[in-house]
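Moderator note: this is an archived Q&A kept for reference. The question asked for a predicted structure of one protein chain; the sequence and the answer are reproduced below.
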Amino acid sequence: MRHLKILSTSDVHGFLYPTNYSQRDDQQPYGWLKAATLIRQIQDQAGPDDIVLTIENGDWIEGSSFDSYLATAAPDRASLLSKLPQDLHYDLGVLGNHEFNYGLDYLRECMADRNYPLLGANIDGAHAQGIVDAPYQIFKKKGVKIAVLGLTTAYVPVWEPASHLTGLTFQSALATAQHWVPKLRQRADVIIVAYHGGFEANLVSGEPTERLTGENEGAQLLTQVPGIDALVTGHQHRLIAGVYHKIPATQPGDKAVAVGEIDLDLDEELQITGRRAQLLPTAAVTPDPELTAKLAPIQAQTQDWLDTPVGHIGGASLRVTDHLAARLHGHPYLNFINQVEADAGQVDIAATALFNDDVAGLGETVTRRQVLNSYPYPNTLVVERVTGADLKAALERCANFFTLQNGAITVSETFTTPKVELYNYDVYAGIDYTFDLTQPQGTRVTALSYHGQPVQADQQLDIVMNQYRGNGGGEYPMFRASKIIREINTSVADLIQDYLVAHPTVIGQQPQNLTIKR
């Protein structure tokens, strides 16, 4: 009897330490250094018949202020991001969609020094570009042949500018698995699919939980690819562990709040006789002391870099304390971000999002820490020329963010279930618009004007937005690459800091251009 334990981390997003970097002494109940303690314990305690296989499932090099420091201030040290999984004896890695945020050159730099393979079966050209080693790997451990097929969400080109994906083509994860799994079945005893993607349907009923765009194909992998023995997922930041359609599957959230664990029992003929899946929470775990000490110098440098003052705010406060109110009525902070975007794009219509309810905005003395915590993504900007009908359709999508419950305005489940997507609601500057929440969806935008005149359906308008939205991300199909007339290839966080340098004191102003009726 042999026992195979499959451990996985996913969507760590550079949160190595248990902190969100909002303050120098902040402490949070997550972090990869905590996960490292659990993984090391399991690896060290493995018995003679135990096999432990450890997977890093993507979205590793972008997300936290630590990652931002490496990418913008110390790119020559970025390879430590591949050395950390190596130090913990990970067996393999998979690329997530956010691995492409800083471009291929930086991705290659991050992954330069490692002794474990990066797998990506559905990214054509990835091997030639030096970012993936193979579509799959067969590991031979204690007499068991274990094949792991690596997959990445095929939706990456929807979010990323073409300059970040030179020479790459993304294929359907489902179609790729259907091609490879039967071949691997003939060569290995156990087949694992490591997929940086999530689930598009309820895992029990099969009912779709989102529009079937190809972003998430995990449910179809479970039901339409015979031969998979275990499925490791990510991307959606959900906490999932169970056996579905006789296949154990995990998704361990984000920021290393948990480690995914799949257990397979194999008999003497190497047939699977037992299947289990669970998540191992990290909240109560002490960070790994060896790796913590190794990272301490660069962590201190990151904290010093974050405390650097970059500007000053006067007038209305840019601190965000009521996030729902900010989305309902606009906010001086969002107005400022739109001001920065409009200045960079040389237009007067701008859109931005309050990405999550952790966004605190900016204080009177603005530090780099505040900027990066409030605008955590390395988005660049695009200017799109759209019609009035396009703009109205985008605003209808925004209006659907809200719902009425007993007369009170709350966030619609469409934006919170199965995944929280608060970043898919935009606040606009440069137009005046009204949402009537008592009206049916699709007819809630009851007034829309530009420069004091009603917007006409065929009217052409130039709007600046981040490139994620400009490529249609967040189910905004009215925006697309073909409508881009100008690109601003500087991260929004850098644009914010540059604007503050050029304008030593910014005067906060509460916008008055959005009206909500209920």
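Archived answer notes: The first strand starts at residue 2 and ends at 9.
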